Amino acid sequence: MATFRAEVFQNEFLPDGGTDVHAIVTVSAEGVGGAATTGGGVAEIVMIDTSGSMTGPMLAAAKHAAQVAVDHIPDGTWFAIVSGSHVAQRVFPYPNAPVAIVQMEPAAREEAKRAVSRLGAQGGTAMSTWLRLADQIFATQPAATQRHAILLTDGKNESEPRSQLTSTITAVTGRFQCDARGVGERWQVDELREIATALLGSVELIADPADIAEDFRALLATSLSRGVADAQLRVWTPQGGQVLFVRQVAPTVEDLTARRTDVTPLVGAYPTGAWADESRDYHVAVRLPSKPLGAEQLAARVQVAVADEVVASGLVKAAWSDDASLTARISPEVAHYTGQAELASVIQEGLAAKAAGDEATATVKLGRAVQLAAETGNEEATSKLRRVVEIEDEEHGTVRLKRGASRLDEMALDTASTKTSRVRR
Amino acid sequence: MDGVVSEPRAAVACPACGEPAGDGARFCEACGAPLTETGSREGLPSPDDSNPVPQPDRAGGGCPACGGDVAGDGYCTRCGARAPVERDHREEQPAPHVAGVSDVGMRRRRNEDALALGVAGDVTVLVVCDGVSSAPDSDVASQAAATAARDVLVAGAADVGADDAGGWSRLLVAAGHRADDAARTAVDDATARQDPPSCTFAAAVVGPALLVAGWLGDSRVYWLPDTGAPEQLTEDDSIAAELMAGGMSRAAAERSPDAHAITRWLGADAEETTARTVATRPSGPGWVLACSDGLWNYASAPDVVAGLLRDALDRAGTDPAALSRDLVAWANASGGHDNVTVALARVAGPAPASPEPAAAAHADDAGTTPTVRRRPAGSLREEPDAPAP
Lengths: 425, 389
Known about the structure:
The complex is a heterodimer. Chain A is 32% helix and 33% strand. Chain A is α+β, with helices and mostly antiparallel strands. In chain A, strands 4, 5, 6, 7, 8, 9 and 10 form a 7-stranded mixed β-sheet that branches. Chain B is of the alpha+beta class. In chain B, the strands form 3 sheets. A 6-stranded antiparallel β-sheet of chain B has the order 1-2-13-12-8-9. In chain B, strands 3-4-6-7-11 form a 5-stranded antiparallel β-sheet, covered by helices on one side. Chain B has a two-stranded antiparallel sheet with strand order 5-10. In chain B, helix 1 packs antiparallel against helix 2 and helix 6 packs across helix 7.
């Protein structure tokens, strides 16, 4: 039986006239069991880029990885394989099969691997067609409520306007979760990040095609460990109050603010996708009308809901005080994750400025990133930053752009920018 | 951790005194109160219900701020206001001549003051404890301490002669130690905490011809005779009192930055918990007032307090409950910066034929080491007092 816990970290004291309340809410799930325990079915779709650029060792590695994935999908799981170029095609079940998705069993496993082995590479890249086909396939099996896809590409989404991809992402958001993987150095981090963010998945760079298979195996293991198909984060704010933002801040930074759907006028629900035994941190910021000194009130109830049932609840409070020793303190958790969120955005802005030739802005932003990574103890970010900038003074964020930094290093930094270090407690 | 609503405590303790009740027992072994009813004596607040937990079934209207529903977590589901808890305002009146009110005040989030009153024969017992707000759970400690001290004093009354000032002093010291034990054990992990729950202690035992007070910290006992000079019997264990002992005026000392820092208290980090005591012999009728600093912040010097009581008598009459309520309301109207606790007992004074001298004579109660003389010479100059800023 899955149990959720919500723990609140905040400084509830506000100075006279103060309005904004910040809290970090740690949500942990225990005893979740695996995906097989969700009750509804589990469905997996693997989307492989078969555009012309994949020709050669890259395609071979991708095909091998897809076969490894098929090996690791347990019997009984609904699955399909899609090949994508400027159009999408169902590879397995075969295009002429009467059903779009089948349950894994030994014969299907062998037939699927055979189908993958016959894939060749040609054509352009229009990922919206891949996502749309995956969505259609999932839709044919309503009993499979826990839906997960893997998208692998090596290139830019060049065969369609970006707006086409964006509108498709919007259309399929909430219908399945998708992890996005870029192999090599010709793909666009921001394109895959847009997909993964909307579809509650992760984005990763795979530098060496030989590593794709291991990554797929790990992705499937993670997906199949998720025994809670879908949980919502719900935030109640008092009448007259306003949610400033709701952000997942660990393990990665994901802004959920715009993903709100109203449960009641005072309660908003934010999607969090499927859960394994894990813990995630959320930064909730609420604005309240100021109250007189001495007043205390609830600023937010932060709840976890599974299948419309509230399974955990945390209270975010506000108390107005004229004691500066109380009001001046910033919760270490809030400070840490405020820094981590800023770290993610300055890395992305710095790299974007560098790509646009604005070296002055890039130097300032990446310098700030070095400073924040050091302050918040994010060693992974620091080590990735070191490959892109020469650090002169970590504490003050003084850096020089590294001449001849490789595109792969920049992409690795960009991709990892949203990964946060947990606050030290 | 937030977000966990505790289970309501099982009703296995005496509602009146908190003593664990045996299975099937109909009356409390310790105090004799009936166990079959959930309410305590005459609907008085149960002294041990010191940390009420919002019950899950509390929903269903009742937010005093907006009329919305109050959720099981104790906050309104519409406006987020904290619903008042029983501890926010408590009244006790164990007999017609004695009553007390403890109130959260206007600025504090919870009431960490505690009150415990009792009557044993012709002896009246007043106990006020003020939880140290910087230490979490001091509200639990203060109520445990007050209740424990009151119980010691009420139970011991039978063994002390009505006129035995030394005996009463020793009993007050014992009550202080018992209260300290209660404060130390009020939460399981008190000794492990850096800032363990702690509180002040001020107690008075009042007989027809003798009044003995004991204290640690800055909660006070005043003797306010109908005629004659009013007195502050206690001498604060506080930085302000030390400044005054050094010659500073009361007004200046009480305005100093550390005025409210107390130098003695009860709790796991207390070093010296032997109450100081003082005795006085009323020469005529009057009022004994025990209070927390939530009241004396706004009226400190004895003649100011006496004037305040006269005004209250004009407004509220002579019922000590009405008077206590009036004084609490006055403190709240004056700012209510802190929790306010006021306990009042009417003293008839010695019979008219009594050979006692007219002026109050302080018992010297030799033999009770803890008893100290009031006020070192030169301190505590009486002067009009300005309300706290």
